[in-house]
């Protein structure tokens, strides 16, 4: 009689996991946020390419075209994420192969409370980022659960949302998501 061996999978890695690019933008030299995001996403069963800090726009776009990710995550800690993000999303959306790739931004996106693209969690800033082409905005001060929920709503291999929602994350009560400085 032939003996069968059971193969047991450990951890949370799943073949159906997403291919995710995690990065900062050219002006941001912080890396701890990227390590946190990478570990969080890997724990959720996704494959992560961490481009690191101070990534020039051209390199970010070139690597995303090469990798063909299911999700692009831009993280800012230095407070310049709003302005840098507008520039980067325009470059990503200008490439046909990345035009519909789900892309989110988060962390500390501003440095004062004027509501003009700086400060913490202004609805106008979040609407501007969504209108510019981001699929999600996750600012400091809230829960990681909104980000996890967004990631969980994506399917591997699709490389694009079935329909760009431009909507705010579920559970936000019509208000922009406020997520801990995880991005």
Compile the SSE list and pairings.
Layout: E1 19-23, H1 32-43, E2 47-52, H2 57-67, E3 71-76, H3 81-93, E4 103-107, H4 123-132, E5 136-139, H5 144-152
Parallel strand pairs: 1-2, 1-3, 3-4, 4-5
Quick recap:
This protein has 183 residues and is an alpha/beta fold.
Structure keywords:
5 strands; disordered C terminus; 183 residues; alpha/beta; globular; five-stranded parallel beta sheet
Number of helices: 5
Major β-sheet annotation: 5 strands, parallel
Helix-strand sequence: EHEHEHEHEH
In helices, the fraction of residues equals 25-40%
Report the end-to-end length measured between terminal Cα atoms.
55 Å
Strand content: 5-15%
Show unreliable segments: 5-11, 114-119, 162-181
Radius of gyration: 17 Å
Give the spatial strand order of the biggest sheet: 2-1-3-4-5
Q: How many strand segments?
A: 5
Derived from helix and strand composition plus strand pairing, the structural class reads alpha/beta
Which word captures the global form? Answer: globular
Mean pLDDT: 80
Descriptive notes:
The protein is α/β, with parallel strands linked by helices. The protein has 5 helices and 5 strands, in the order E-H-E-H-E-H-E-H-E-H. The protein has helices at 32-43, 57-67, 81-93, 123-132, 144-152, and strands spanning 19-23, 47-52, 71-76, 103-107, 136-139. It has a 5-stranded parallel sheet with strand order 2-1-3-4-5, sandwiched between helices. Strand 3, helix 3 and strand 4 form a beta-alpha-beta unit. The longest helix is centred in the middle third of the chain and has 13 residues, at 81-93.
């Amino acid at each position: 009689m032939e003996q069968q061996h059971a193969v047991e999978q450990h951890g949370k890695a799943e073949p159906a996991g997403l291919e995710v690019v995690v990065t900062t933008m050219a002006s941001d030299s912080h890396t701890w946020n990227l390590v946190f995001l990478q570990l969080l996403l890997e724990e959720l069963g996704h494959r992560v390419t961490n481009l690191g800090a101070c990534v020039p726009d051209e390199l970010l776009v070139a690597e995303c075209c090469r990798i063909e990710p299911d999700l692009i995550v831009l993280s800012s800690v230095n407070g310049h994420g709003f302005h840098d993000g507008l520039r980067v999303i325009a470059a990503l959306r200008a490439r046909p192969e990345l035009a519909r790739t789900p892309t989110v931004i988060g962390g500390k996106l501003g440095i004062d409370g004027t509501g003009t693209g700086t400060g913490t969690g202004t609805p106008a800033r979040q609407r501007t980022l969504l209108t510019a082409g981001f699929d999600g905005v996750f600012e400091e001060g809230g829960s990681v659960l909104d980000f996890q929920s967004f990631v969980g709503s994506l399917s591997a291999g699709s490389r694009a949302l079935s329909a760009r929602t431009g909507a705010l994350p579920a559970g936000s009560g019509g208000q922009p998501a406020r997520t801990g400085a995880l991005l």
